[in-house]
Amino acid sequence: MTHEDARELEAELARLQQEHRDLDAAIDALHQSPAPDLLRLQRLKKRKLLLRDRIAFIEDQITPDIIA
């Protein structure tokens, strides 16, 4: 992996982490509403899970494997 590839992954990671936090706030706000839109809530949670998986994948790509 080149230095430029690592920088691009780190930039994408930061963007995804921010989107994950934003979704978390949106989900909390929907939970607080008097009549939450359950379909929208379900879609936000699904998107949040997909982001979590992508974040984990990128973190694995950035962190070198250490063979013990």
What can you tell me about this protein's structure?
This protein has 68 residues and is mainly alpha-helical. The chain has one domain. Helix content is 81%, strand content 0%. The chain has two helices and no strands. The longest helix has 30 residues, at 3-32.
Helix and strand layout, with pairings?
Elements: H1 3-32, H2 38-62
Protein name: DUF465 domain-containing protein
Coiled coil: 6-61
Pfam families: DUF465
Total number of helices: 2
**Are there runs of 5+ residues with pLDDT below 50, and where?**
none
Strand content: under 5%
Largest sheet: none
Estimate the global geometry from the Cα principal axes. Answer: elongated
The helix/strand series, from N terminus to C terminus, equals: HH
Determine the structural class based on helices, strands and strand pairing.
mainly alpha
Distance between the termini: 21 Å
**Mean pLDDT, nearest integer?**
93
Share of residues in helices = over 70%
Question: What keywords describe this structure?
Answer:
mainly alpha
Offer a concise description of the structure.
By secondary structure, this protein is an all-alpha fold. It has helices spanning 3-32, 38-62. It has one domain (3-61).
